Amino acid sequence: MTSLDRPHLFIGGAWVPPSSAATIGVENPATEETIAHVPAGTADDVDRAVTAARDAFDSWAGRSMADRGEVLDRLHTALAARAGDIAKTVGLELGTPLKVAKAVQAGLPLTVLRGYADLAVRPQPAETIGNSLVVHEPVGVVGAITPWNYPLHQVVAKVAAALAAGCTVVLKPSELTPLVAYLLFDAALEAEVPRGVLNLVTGTGAEVGAAIAGHPGIDMVSFTGSTATGRAISHAAADRIARVALELGGKSANVILEDADVVKAVKVGVGNAFLNSGQTCTAWTRMLVHRSVYDEAVSLAAKAAAGYTVGDPFDEGTRLGPLVSAAQRDRVRGFVDRADARLVAGGPDAVLPEKGHFVAPTVFADVDPASELAQEEIFGPVLSIIPFADDDEAVAIANNSRYGLAGGVWGSADRALAVARRMRTGAVDINGGAFNPVAPFGGYKQSGVGRELGEYGLAEFQQTKAIQR
Ligand code: NAD
Questions:
Q1: 258 FRET partner, CA 20 to 30 A, in 54, 154, 344, 453?
Q2: Whole-number Å distance between alpha carbons of 167 and 312
Q3: Does residue 258 sit in the same domain as residue 138?
């Protein structure tokens, strides 16, 4: 028992006991201590939550979008009041350094929720095509399954859009970082989100996740996580032709052309690759550099990596926290140990804190684009640098991946845009273009199906109906 224990599930608008006494321990990855326990939910709990969500659906779907926007506005107010707790909780259960936790782990979901509250209250013009009135209606009951790396953002990106659209939701957060989701449900209770509209069942993927994916009462499964799990969820949903939205892995390329501002491109590129200890699906883990500026870029990247102080997420000076779990750390260290490339920073012998699941910020140069290092999503602070001779080769290397989530290009504006257009990914940032929280977000190829955020994210949770007159 600890003071952070959360013994309940949230079903039908109230905190309720789970059907089983089994719990899951939540670990602080920086100290390796168990800091809390949450219920190991069961298929029965999922069933109860789906029933509550179905019961709530007609009334919630029947409200105007503007009405639902007012509820989201109240939810935003209640969640914003918890911003400090959100950052601290993610610091504890995931190990994100506090400064990043405040800006990204707490700041981003609040921005996204605010955006959906505003979008929902905006007047929706009637759409007509010939003699048809085209209307958008909610898909139904949504099962949302989320991972641990941005544990509140990934929940809010689904929940805010689904609720705005008129869907009701059963959420299963990652069993590694479930605590921050509880803060959202504390806020939902305070904001008087109508009962049954938003339900929480914690537990493992094998039990609760699989029960959601296969539940006949769930009309759509919105999933963020690994490509392997996304595939399993697609199979389960296919049996009943349920809709799926999948946000999966990535192996994004950051292309530095010879007319780029190399100093800035490398600094921002390394920062992107190491954000959240590299546990970011959009991380630019492959740095592709034109041969004429290659040596300069390699030495800049090595120097930048060495500046990422590893340590306690709650220390002011820490820039790189631990990985989420021992399993994740061992997996990442395995890639580093097996790497067949020139090590220029970090590596297996770097000195690290004795406790905690740390991996040193690591940079490899001269990486073979076909190697494991360049092909597999490592999900840790490991950057691979690869040279290229011209734009065609840069594009070919960038696209030599089964993933297609994000990327960057640095160089003169027109040329960078031409390269960006040829990259088979859902997003590309030119010369450090800022992340846009209302732009469509999602992947090509095995990085996913569908889009999140903004109006595109809303549309994922809607059906389209044509009414002829
Ligand atoms: P994961 O696939 O193991 O788990 C994600 C969620 O799915 C968890 O809640 C887990 O309990 C659940 N789950 C596991 N097995 C399941 C099953 N058989 N049925 C139903 N649910 C199941 O992924 P993870 O390890 O938590 O997250 C890391 C991965 O997620 C990385 O590959 C990363 O790239 C990807 N990711 C993608 C995005 C994106 O937006 N594209 C965002 C974050 C993470």
A1: 344
A2: 40
A3: no
